Amino acid sequence: MTSPTKRSPGIGVRLLAAQAMVLLAGAVTTWIVAAVVGPPLFREHLELAGVPAESSEQMHAEEAYTYATAISIGVALGVAALAALVVTWYLSRRVQRSVTEVSSAAAAVADGRYDARVSPPRLGDDFDALAEAFNQMAGRLESVEATRRRLFGDLAHEIRTPVSVLEAYLEAVEDGVKTLDPETTTLLRDQTKRLVRFSDDVAALAQAEEGGALIAPTSVPPDTLIGAAVASVTDRFAAKGIALASDVDADLPCVWVDPQRFAQVLGNLLDNALRHTPSGGRVDVVARADRGQLRITVADNGDGIAAEHLPHVFERFYRTDTARDRDHGGAGIGLAITKAIVEAHQGRISVASEGPGTGTTFTVTLPFDRS
């Protein structure tokens, strides 16, 4: 039978014990100094005052001095000890309570309860900073957990839909309800392509979020980047009846980017504009120098985005219109990939829209090549 683990004293008890040891050391030191130094000095002053040595007057005066000194030191040490212990007890209780609260909150977070928070102990900047840092950590963990749950839910949904279609049609073919005619084959192939595309998107997002490790930058003229991206989608825009135009300032300095990765950025933004701009609409790609940086805007006059959706458009699997985006085959990952790649290039991306039906503008800023 194992013996129970002996519980060590808490921080409050240790603070009290430490304060008691300091007081004891101070009392002993004071008493020794008073006993060794005081009487000779007092005796010397008596002799200077004309009190004969070894006389009864000297003896009574020294006894009175010793008695008064003992009472004074005793009372002073007692009051000081009481005050010090009371203050230490009060502070130790507050520290103990704060530490216990942080410990309990940490245990709650470890158990998966990420909504745990601690109140500011108001014991100084250090303790307040600790409480604030803990609350920030818990808040971020809560956000990560919420994102993780949504991520798995979206992953399950994205995979379930094409798999369910494939399973239903295969069962129908097996039961003889349907034949493996070109129409059925095309549908099955579309669903498998959707799965492959989704798998590629998830892999691309994982790679993009690894940051600069997968970036191979080189000095590239902005007009070359934008010209290639626009040329690659011109036919698709023409087929849908959407006007696509680019306007790049002449003599812009080069930017330090990975051409393939940044082509993915522009491709995603143009694909997004193509999906959400109706026939007869217009998309403009503009590049300008702005305060020592390259500013690229991709603006359309299509669906637009409601104000409540704007802060979330770069989140993984976020859709402003779930049904519409799924019908278009989007998995809600493209803009998250775009943001990760732009930030890996030390750039920034933002989105603006005045609301549904007013169009959307994405703005990418990149530092120019300083070499």
Radius of gyration: 39 Å
- Share of helix, binned: 55-70%
Count all strands and give the number. Answer: 7
Question: How do the strands of the widest beta sheet line up side by side?
Answer: 2-4-5-7-6
The ordered string of helix (H) and strand (E) elements is HHHHEHEEHEEHHEE
Distance between the termini: 73 Å
How many alpha or pi helices?
8
Largest sheet: 5 strands, mixed
Assembly of the depicted chains: single chain
Shape assignment: elongated
Helix-and-strand structural type: alpha+beta
Summarize the structure.
The chain has 371 residues and is α+β, with helices and mostly antiparallel strands. The chain is built from eight helices and seven strands.
Architecture overview:
This protein has 371 residues and is α+β, with helices and mostly antiparallel strands. Helices cover 60% and strands 11% of the residues. Strands 2-4-5-7-6 form a 5-stranded mixed β-sheet. Strands 1-3 form a two-stranded antiparallel ribbon. Strand 4 and strand 5 form a beta hairpin. Helix 4 (182-208) runs parallel beside helix 8. Residues 322-329 have low confidence and may be disordered.
